[in-house]
Amino acid sequence: MRPQESTALFSVISSLSKNKTTTFINKMSFQKEDLSEPSEICNKLNNYFCSVGAKLAQSLSSGSNNDFIKYLPFSNKNSMFCSPVTPDEIIRILYKLPNNTASGGDGINSKVLKVIGSSIATPLAHIFDLSFTSGEVPELLKVAKVILIYKKGKEINPVIIALYLC
Q1: CA neighbor of 121 nearest in space, from 86, 96, 95
Q2: How far is residue 51's CA from residue 18's CA, in Å, rounded to a whole number?
Q3: Region label for 36, one of left (φ > 0), alpha (ψ between -120 and 50) or beta (otherwise)
Q4: Using CA atoms, how far apart are residues 11 and 152, in angstroms rounded to an integer?
Q5: What is the pTM assigned to this prediction?
Q6: What's the CA gap between 6 and 140, in Å, rounded?
Q7: Cα 130 to Cα 135: distance, rounded to the nearest angstrom
Q8: 145 close to 162: Cβ distance less than 8 angstroms
Q9: Which one, of 147, 90, 79, lies nearest residue 116 by Cα?
Q10: Are 27 and 19 in contact (CB under 8 A)?
């Protein structure tokens, strides 16, 4: 990511934040190691957040599809309700996307989505409804990219952002 893009991205994220205060991490203890150097702190945080998913996946047993029953034994199918997704809702969301040519992880940019929106709205609504009713989420929707953004100034203040790739 180029510096101009980082600055622009951070400006957007900052404007969305309700809490306008800045917190600096001057010291950090990680696995009995005291850190005070800003770059060391950033690297430790980056390594930690980049490894959480892999460590969690390794810790879960892959022997059975019913392993979740060990820690979530009771199921209540009526505990959550989502209204069906409508094609109009999809079109409204597509038209709210910014007009840029940058594409997501799927390689499709927002301009193309806006042009074909009315043609893909019904199939997309059906796919989303199937996902909600079955509780299954496609693997590509579970992928995120973690980016460390450095703010200007004497102190390095890491900001971790999950950018969904789909």
Answers
A1: 86
A2: 29
A3: alpha
A4: 12
A5: 0.43
A6: 24
A7: 8
A8: yes
A9: 90
A10: no
Length of the chain: 166
From CA 44, how far away is CA 50, in angstroms rounded? 10
Distance CA 24, CA 9 (A): 20
CA 107, CA 127: separation in Å to the nearest integer? 19
The half-sphere exposure of 57 on its side-chain side, counting CA atoms within 13 A, is 5
Determine the Cα–Cα distance for residues 164 and 124; give it in Å rounded to an integer: 17
Task: Tokens 């940058």: give the residue.
Answer: 102
Structure token digits, residue 94: 């597509």
Q: Dump the DSSP string for 81-142.
A: --PPP-HHHHHHHHHHS-----B-TTS-BHHHHHHHHHHHHHHHHHHHHHHHHH----GGGG
Over the stretch 78-109, which tens digit does the pLDDT of each residue have? 666 778 999 999 999 998 988 877 777 777 88
Torsion angle of C-alpha atoms 47, 50, 52, 53, degrees rounded to 10: -160
Give tens-digit pLDDT for 123-137.
Answer: 999 999 988 888 888
Answer for the pair 130, 120: CB distance below 8 angstroms, yes or no.
no
